[in-house]
Amino acid sequence: MPYFDAASSAPLHPVARQALLAALDEGWADPARLYREGRRARLLLDAAREAAADAVGVRPDELTFTSSGTRALHDGIAGALAGRRRAGRHLVHSAVEHSAVLHAAAAHEAAGGTVAEVPVDRAGRVAPGAYAAALRAAPGPTALACLQSANHEVGTRQPVAETAAECAEAGVPLLVDAAQSLAFGPVPGDWSLLTASAHKWGGPSGVGLLAVRKGVRFAPQGPADERESGRAPGFENIPAVVAAAASLRAVREEAAAEAERLRELVDRIRTRVPRLVPDVEVVGDPERRLPHLVTFSCLYVDGEALLHELDRAGFSVSSGSSCTSGTLTPSHVLRAMGVLSEGNVRVSLPLGTAEEDVERFLAVLPDVVRGVRGRLGAPERAEEATAASAGSASGDSGVSAGPGGSAGPGAGGPGGSAGPGAGGPGDEEAEVVVDSLGKLCPIPVIELAKVIGEVPVGGLVTVLADDEAARLDIPAWCAMRGHAYEGERPADRGTAYRVRRRA
Fold this sequence. Notes:
By secondary structure, the protein is of the alpha/beta class. Helices cover 36% and strands 16% of the residues. It has 13 helices and 15 strands. It has helices at 14-26, 36-56, 69-83, 99-110, 130-136, 160-169, 238-276, 303-312, 332-337, 355-376, 382-387, 443-451, 470-481, and strands at residues 63-66, 90-94, 114-118, 142-148, 174-177, 193-197, 208-212, 280-283, 293-298, 344-348, 399-403, 430-435, 460-465, 484-490, 495-500. A seven-stranded mixed beta sheet has the order 1-7-6-5-4-2-3, sandwiched between helices. The relative contact order is 0.11.
């Protein structure tokens, strides 16, 4: 069964397995002890630290092993903020950071600190100069800035070197989350702190890396401990650490050639999926991206159902759709990018992925999407499907139509001119109101698509919805289908989203 979710956790690398088994026999003793078993364990730990530090590009005494990448992020942010508390209490991060960074930022703000979020473009990338501008606009001195090297959901690479230079000029340390990119090479630039997670590159779970370069003010939080320079208390998991370092070195040796091969396979998916499946948006930067990851979103599809059907077809993929995360809130990454969230699929290929597995995925995907859309009653081409039924909306459940129709109290009336085809001077504006209250993604968008043909070009459709995903998916649908999104207004219940027919 092809496993296409390496961005969540890569399969254990063969070298990691070998190193783990060997270290279980040799590295079980306390490395702080002076007898031979302790010395042997210490040698293994030191060798692993040297190998990992070399891969990161730091000195061995600048590298700490933690219990996970998430733990490394929390410890790194907390230690850097505490170390620079006299300099300021302001934290800057991008809008698409890992949730661990967002949680750490929320905790910092709750404790009285201030936080600024740097926006990204539609490809998920921070603009050059954006961090410099955020530092200038800070309410006070900034203690720390955070930026991922590459995004975990869409694969977009960030301008780390340029951002590090902006931060250095302002005298602010930059923490880089390198979890997704470290397998493919060191992170460039004069960054100050770096974190990573072994299970992202094929090492065992339960091992994270925290690098703190010399000269960076850092105060470990929590009770003092003599291990790992006081930055990660507790007995080191030496077998797992040895396996993590060994697999990182092995993956790096394979990465140059394998990255090119994976990039070609991902390019194949990026190019062919929109041709094979109608109404698909491929998201993320098409060029400045990780070689093994591609994300696309399908209109009129329930993301959870889509993932289940792909699993039944033999493919393990993941998603950033709200309906696959157990919440009504879309992925914060997709929301920050302003792209479609419904029917979201992330494909991240592990090293060694076979070309025939990718071809088989491309072969089964169209039927899977078509089946899910069919069960939801989604139109294949909305305007064509409803052209014959124009004017009949008043008899349909959940839809009201008529000149000047409103979305209900508090939703606001028609705004602006109706445009060509909506009636002559003095005529009231044609409008259809769709009541999707209580319905989850992607139903509000499906109902919008079904009725858009019932208003003339220039007419309005107002969708009433209380699913948070509608705030993202309705504007994205408009951009994909060539209609004009005219904004939202509060309604008695939920929100009224206004769409003007242009196509």
